[in-house]
Design goal:
Chain lengths: 330, 330, 330, 330, 330, 330
């Protein structure tokens, strides 16, 4: 059995795997947990990130307004299922040039030491990766953007690797990017970034077509005894648009750009009405995971059809076994 | 409180706003009111236009056949909800060159004096704006096309403005047009058109992204004490296609190309299954509105997913308040 | 009344036409008959082909795996409705160069003499038409690919025509082909193909827009006293993607590239949730038909939303009458 | 022999047809007549229009600046070959909303009565047709734009036809338009336009592929005893871009939307270095013609490679004979 | 030294390699040998094919007319440099369905036994490979099209290989095809084609980018002691369009789909004005080669800028040495 | 008069401005200075960079091979006009992962202290900015790539600004990028990069259309008493492809992301045959500049039509005056 390197989290949301289910990830029975109109002026609440916080849970939420303006909001929960989301978006402190808002979306939250770092897709003459930190989810200090445009889906590792802060991200273009690989970058200070390494890319041909158009990192990587467990999204381009599904990979613990294992099969994809029908049909997009080191349990928070937020469950062993059973050979 | 300049219409369809609803427009509880197979050979009945007529209601309906041929049909109703639509499309009288049918779709009906004018997207070596009138919804006299190709969504004002008939329209291209602004044009005689003025266009950036790809006029503008109240459609381009929503604007009463107010928020968008699932998913497309001058009530008829017809309600004050609460600052 | 030239098939699946239905084809009341997870590792089971076999039924099924790898699988059924599909894909015997698998999808099965010929879209440096035969659905002998790339939807006639084996197919390109016409080709030996003839193409303009973007053959043509009855798919390109519907045509019995009649109306299109919602929304794609010569009954197997398999019923007379009632005049 | 209905113009530029030339149009031997740097800040001087004026010639010239800003300039010449072009663009008087400049290009000049009307592609929230008049080429009075966007190449007939001013034009889209047909429109007053008629379009297939992508009117139509002689441009789309050539057509004298004859062959195309090499290679684009009623001579002014201005010669009989020899049968 | 397996041809055109030239192919000093207006109504004479014939030379020429209609014409020459091309295109005898002309272009001529076979890109509801034969270049017998659409550049080997006629070709799409590989097909009778084998494709990445977009066969393969020497075209896609260059390959003598050697470097590309400037800039496109078995000399006929015809020289040893010096390792 | 902050360079190439020339930059009279076949296996030698070196000049040259493989080569010259370029590309020393070559092109050379830093477009799973240094142009030490893909045109400033090395670059996509702005980034150590600032972008509309599609930095910025003088390239998209021209800007000396002045007019564009005709027509692309502090002279090296290398002259005052005369007001 594999072990999560981390803390125990007894109160994390959980349901047991349904009898007879032939899949490594299962949905929460009362999905979606957050509806599109969860706050007064929201059109949709989806790609969002949560962490344990002061005995309960806190999070940063993507709420598109009814003008379809994209911003990120703080929220709080006792049980990780029922959420109170602030009605006003996060205000940042920092360098005036940097905190100017064009748009903000698809946040992740990574706790490093006693700081909660938020990363997100930040508009700065094109999409790039914004970084900020908070200790209380009230005051947020914004740092330099990590990269030049154009980039989306920057996800910080939960600790330094070697001497460096580490991030995986997906370089992109200015629009509905028709390509996407995952890269690894490091920084001594969260300001200057370098030593960029290619981690993995799309899979050509038929072997694993669900991830043939683009892939990008999802939740903060989970440290386990065997390496870093990365849950990511993969996209196929059908004649009727993109389908977003989830997969997982195991990265080397010290050199995370080395891929030790990777799922040939997706681990979750759009099947329910709330995943298949909405503002952008056929999207399941993971942005956060809660884990319990005692049990190996994982709770995945994911956006559904770019409209609502879903919750799904798995364990470290389920994912590792599944990668082993359906290994990617390409 | 604002006032509609017009007639009272005591028998218009109406339902009160649901308790606690946080939105300016609400759906009819028994939507859709017209199903896709409403007449024997129809594939779909959607973007359609209705008016009060002889104590009840008459209308012109877009019915696509099961060969997916697009034409417009007359129909009648006592209550504005239950409709009898003719099984054969409208036949027009007029100049032989003009009445030749290529295709016809997306009608509007505007009563000016004692004539009911129908405008629609008319195929004439490309889409342009067809015009015809009737007094009885039995005999229809077709006039010259208003413009050169390519144009869609021509909507006549319900009275002359100054010395001229007036129309708002959306110039387009030959296909699934990736742009679209609203222009204002006038005519002394409904044959010759000129004095074209730009009214308003799409909104770049993040402030009001639901109307970032194209916009076009919907129902006949409603005259109120403060100007012309225009309900229009706006489109965003997602990675999985266009989403059509509704917004509103207030235009100057004498110079309607001057925009006095405009909604930053959409007022209705695809959320129900019948709006999100159908031949063209995620479309809510308004083509007509009934109004009651006594109460300020408005009933909007709109196409759903290019498949069925829906009905929704609001009031003049709801719309004006909403524009004031969520003003467009761009 | 028209007659099917063929065998009787008393045990074929059947339901009577619902009262009052105004359409030539009706759905099985318990659709879909095959779910997406019908075998342990399947993501979807859809465009598939069945034939009578040893008193019951056998078939070849497209099952996309949960890595979204496309392959074809044998399966068996007593009643044509409940199916046992093998968990491993078909293995082929034959020339080593030819049996190398890139991908395989959208099979058809045609019985000629005592052999069951399978044709499918076969990856060989691009999509082309693979051919194989079996007598027992256990051992499959693969022959030469019929054509150069790029081609999809090769369908064999169920007997020689003149001295030749005969096939209809749809030449394509390397991607989500934006065009598609049906051609007829013959072969003395199933290895060498020639005498290619254009059969029919898309319909421009408004007369029959559901088949304006591409068309391709569906089930094995049905021999009737008046010619070959061909059920085919037609595609329209909307602003939100392709919609796949079904139509039918009557081809000359000896020179099948001559079209005697063709449906202006589609005979079935996406309307139910399982046809409108899935991995590729709005797809109904027919690949096989069972027929009973005694009664003229036809049971159509069709893929739904590229996700599940549906069953629908009609008769020869329903289709011929419908083509006569809604003739294509272009 | 055909006759030009018009004035004699003894001093128009002229060279005799070269011996043995097998083509209906021949180039001026000292082409190009206007170089790209003809005025101090010009990048290029090309699609331009000239008329007889006060015993010599005047014209309106498209000069793109070295910032590649597009504007139109007045110019004067004694002999029609050597030109003095003003260094500052034309300033217009008129309605403030209308004279606001976005961009201006591709002018034509048509004398009607004692006024010289200039039409051009005028930026007004998209390209449309600007109209202005002058009597002295010093003061220019701008009228309403003729049409809604999007249109290019509006060309006025040199007299009223019936009771109306008449114009041929080419509706377009917002970019490098991939389509283009010629339409006819009329106006009682040059402000309101209507009664739009399709004149002619592109030629599909192989019969006349040089005009398979788009066509548009060139110089002011020439009145002859047999009808209106129209010189126009036609475009083919090669794998390396558009090629612009010239053709001609004969339109009915009273109903000019009726095409009496049309050239299957182009009459001039890019062959010389100054036509094949420049800012936009392979463009010959006619915008004006001088004619002499006494002799039937025609001098065509045309843009070369969007960079310089060329001059070419022909006669009415050359063009009519060529259309008769190479008739378009489509 | 390598040997050509074939006949001697003492009177073939020839010039010695210029001193100091560092390239395997050199141009004829008086290029182009055929001008665009070589026959009365031609716009261009380019991709054309020649063979020895009755002591002199005959050929089939692509002449686009001044309507830019594409057809093929017979022509004759005493010296292979100065050509008399018929003024009317070739008329074919054969099956009525087959000889209907849509368009014809890019011919090749291959002598097999005492027949001269012409293959070309033939319009039959899309481009495919037409085949015909003649013995006298006066009467031409057209056979079945070799393949389904869409295909261009079908080139027959000059003798049977094994029991079969053999052809290399390039499957394509309907337009300016953005892909292209070379395939090998055989036929017992020139009517039925099969046993299709992939020969070689484009080269991704940077190693040999001139052939990164598409490749296709050029002249009839030349039999040498080491195999078949194939001269082919390769295309790169620049931001300003396609550039067509020539390369060569050595194919196995009995299994020509096996590539023994292939040039990494192009052997000729657009450099001169007549290759870089014309209707389609930057095209050098080889369609025929004359060879002399006594000396190993090769004369290549190639289209220049889709406008004129050029001639270039090389030898078998030059090409083999060049492939050896610059081997393709991909 | 403005002053260059730098060294004197008495032996730099120079020609006086031609009499009467109305432009700020003039071509060397014997252009091009480097032909396409300058080294044995080159197809083209163009976007290249030179610096003063040991009393003469050294440089790094983009030479595409005759396989159209892109690499960079060292070269040497006594006079800056006649060049000896090495026949083999530069070999780099460094981290094994980094020095793996995919492709290399468009180099710049910037002397900082006693090191010559080369930057170029470096293939690493997409184009990014490679960095290396040399002191002798024999041994080259490659450092980390500066950024994640996708980026082109990284240009180092010739000294630290504040505490940091500084670079301007153009983020891009994977292909023929249809957008392009200039950004500024800094690094403490040439390995880690951050503090990215937007400098300037394309100009919409008509004011300065030559730079409406993309812009990117050219030579190493020139330090003058008023700031940094940046020569850059700008691109317009015509219907026949991109046209690349040159402009200039003045950046703040300490905060170079602040633009003090910028040319509305281009300063040089394609006009001569060697600029308009070649592998990519209509390209003038500057990559290096020599300067003499004593006289203010500037010699610009630029690629012509992606085929040959040109040389042009100007002075600091010419450029500053021209920006002042034609200021960009957008």
């Amino acid at each position: 059995m594999s072990k999560i390197i981390g803390e125990s989290l007894k109160n994390m949301p959980w349901q047991e795997k349904p009898e007879g289910l032939n899949a490594p990830v299962w949905r929460y029975s009362a999905n979606p947990i957050i509806e599109r109109h969860a706050i007064p002026n929201s059109n949709s609440v989806f790609n969002s990130a949560v962490v344990p916080f002061e005995g309960g849970f806190a999070g940063v939420f993507r709420c598109d307004s009814r003008s379809v303006s994209m911003d990120i909001f703080a929220g709080f929960s006792d049980d990780g299922v029922n959420w109170n989301i602030n009605h006003e978006p996060i205000q940042f402190e920092g360098d005036e040039e940097i905190i100017k808002r064009e748009y903000r979306y698809d946040p992740r939250v990574s706790k490093i030491g006693d700081r909660y770092y938020i990363t997100w897709c930040n508009g700065y003459h094109g999409p790039t990766i914004g970084i900020a930190y908070t200790t209380d989810f009230k005051t947020f200090h914004q740092l330099e953007n990590a990269f030049l445009p154009y980039n989306r889906n920057g996800v910080l590792f939960p600790r330094k690797i070697g001497d460096y802060y580490a991030m995986v991200s997906r370089p992109s273009d200015t629009g509905h990017t028709p390509f996407g690989d995952i890269f690894y970058s490091v920084s001594p200070d969260l300001t200057f970034w370098g030593k960029h390494r290619y981690v993995m890319g799309t899979i050509n041909g038929d072997e694993s077509a669900w991830q043939s158009k683009k892939i990008g990192p999802g939740p903060v990587p989970i440290e386990i005894d065997k390496g870093w467990l990365l849950i990511y999204h993969g996209v196929i381009n059908t004649c009727n648009g993109f389908v977003y599904r989830m997969g997982c990979a195991l990265l080397d613990i010290n050199e995370p750009w080395k891929v030790l294992a990777r799922s040939r099969n997706y681990i979750l994809g759009p099947e329910t009405l709330y995943e298949c029908v909405g503002d952008v049909p056929n999207v399941t997009f993971p942005c956060a995971a809660l884990t319990d080191a005692d049990t190996g349990r994982i709770a995945i928070y994911y956006g559904c059809a770019d409209t609502v937020t879903g919750l799904a469950f798995t364990t470290v062993d389920e994912l590792l076994d599944y990668m082993e059973k359906y290994p990617l050979e390409a």
